[in-house]
């Protein structure tokens, strides 16, 4: 009988704590915050580079700087995007972390005339500080198969890039710039 009088209060208490509980479960199941950081093929000072087998033939840098649930938002930078047919040396990166937290489905996109253009899709696998990426060009011509290779990158030693408004990442990822349509290969 007493339980009947307590039930409405317990239901309201449950409804109020549900969003926090869901957030906690998502963070434990998907671990999106573990992905936050800058991944490049030259994370000097952080890992033993000769034994890490990073992809030397890429200048692409993956930056994950926001996590919401199992969704990550960031960017990819590098002149390889220009050679592959993009208009800028940067693309927006959306990632959906799969159950377990160590694999994510990737989308590289650009917005042109208020329309979302899918440049490439792919899969990233995170193993500690390593990020293994497989990309598949969609709207990029990619004549030199730059975007079609497997990439192995490492977490850069800097932390919290997005917390410093003066850090434009140019020392790690290069400046964002429009692409020169006459360039067909990466500079050596």
Can you offer a commentary on this structure?
With 188 residues, the protein is an alpha+beta fold. It has a single domain, classed as Lipocalin (Beta Barrel). It contains four helices and eight strands; from the N terminus they run αβαββαβββββα. It has an eight-stranded antiparallel barrel with strand order 1-2-3-4-5-6-7-8. The longest helix has 29 residues. The radius of gyration is 20 Å and the shape is globular. The N and C termini lie far apart (80 Å). The model has no long low-confidence stretch (mean pLDDT 76).
Kindly state the number of beta strands. Answer: 8
Please identify the structural class as seen in this structure: alpha+beta
Order of adjacent strands in the largest pleated sheet? 1-2-3-4-5-6-7-8
Principal-axes shape call:
globular
Give the overall average pLDDT: 76
Helix proportion? 10-25%
- CATH architecture heading: Beta Barrel
SSE pattern: HEHEEHEEEEEH
Number of domains as seen in the coordinates: 1
Within the CATH hierarchy, at the fold level, what is the topology? Lipocalin
Q: In the CATH hierarchy, what is the class?
A: Mainly Beta
User: Which regions contain 5 or more consecutive residues with pLDDT less than 50?
Assistant: none
How much beta, percentage-wise?
25-35%
How many helices in DSSP terms?
4
Radius of gyration: 20 Å
Distance between the termini: 80 Å
Largest sheet: number of strands, sense, barrel closure? 8 strands, antiparallel, barrel
């Amino acid at each position: 009988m007493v339980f009947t009088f307590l039930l409405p209060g317990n239901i309201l208490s449950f409804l109020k704590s549900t969003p926090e509980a869901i957030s906690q479960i998502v963070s434990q199941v998907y671990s999106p915050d573990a992905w936050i950081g800058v991944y490049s093929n030259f994370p000097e000072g952080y890992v033993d580079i000769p034994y890490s087998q990073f992809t030397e033939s890429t200048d692409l840098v993956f930056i994950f700087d926001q996590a919401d649930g199992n969704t990550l938002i960031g960017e990819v930078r590098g002149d390889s995007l220009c050679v592959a047919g993009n208009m800028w040396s940067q693309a927006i990166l959306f990632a959906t972390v799969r159950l377990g937290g160590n694999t994510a489905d990737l989308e590289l996109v650009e917005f042109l005339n208020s329309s979302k253009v899918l440049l490439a899709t792919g899969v990233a696998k995170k193993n500690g500080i390593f990020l293994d990426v497989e990309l598949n060009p969609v709207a990029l011509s990619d004549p030199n198969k730059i975007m079609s290779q497997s990439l192995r990158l490492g977490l850069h030693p800097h932390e919290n890039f997005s917390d410093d408004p003066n850090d434009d990442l140019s020392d790690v990822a290069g400046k964002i710039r429009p692409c020169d349509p006459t360039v067909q290969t990466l500079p050596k």
